[in-house]
Amino acid sequence: MKKRIEVLHKIIAQKQKGTKDKRMYSYLNTKKYGYEKINNYFCGENVLELGTDGSSTSSILVRWSKKLTIVDMHDKFTSQIQKDEKLKDVNFILSSWEEYKPDEKFSDIFLTDSLEHIQEPVKLLKLIKNWLSEDGRLHIIVPNALSIHRLVGVEMGFLSSPYELNDNDISSNHIKVYDHNILKQEIKDAGLNIVVCEGVQFKPNTDIQLADLDENFSRALNNLSYMFNEYCAEIYVCCKL
User: Fold this and answer.
1) Rounded distance, CA 194 to CA 196, Å?
2) pTM for the complete prediction?
3) Which domain of life does this protein belong to (predicted)?
């Protein structure tokens, strides 16, 4: 577990060093904190990542896993191989998730920063459930509507409701914003069982504001997440059959 954390921190730090985008820099910290939580429940035998993005999660998972498969309907992956040759070990499948038909079961399935993009999330979760091994884990991370920074945004008049899509949601093609209760209900409706549901990073500031502060401040806020579980920036849920 300690070795996985070292890999996580090294890859995120490399990615942060290569970006001048303040929002992305802070987002990568939040990603790091989320994967620190995932590490506590990770099996790693045969891993499926649903979607790949620019936050280096694929580079992390290929080093965490004995076998990694990635399914994405857009080839955002080939360009990543040019930067990380280890990704040549990945089984990449160009397909929508709904049309994907695996011939094996997975010990871990990753649906991180993805479910908020889906029109019919319960239908997708029911499908994914069939891909889990008997003792497998489904790892879900979604943005939290009740994050304290969104609640502050409502008070300041930037949002009429914490569930309203903000500019970042719209540019990221989010369809909805979750809270703990909404996410738990969809997981229950899909017939999955929750192992743990935790907040990721207590964030009273915007990503751009946090990027201008000492990184130890961001870490300290994350360390307080357990006290503000319902109001953290993101929600992590580990599910099983």
Assistant:
1) 6
2) 0.94
3) Bacteria
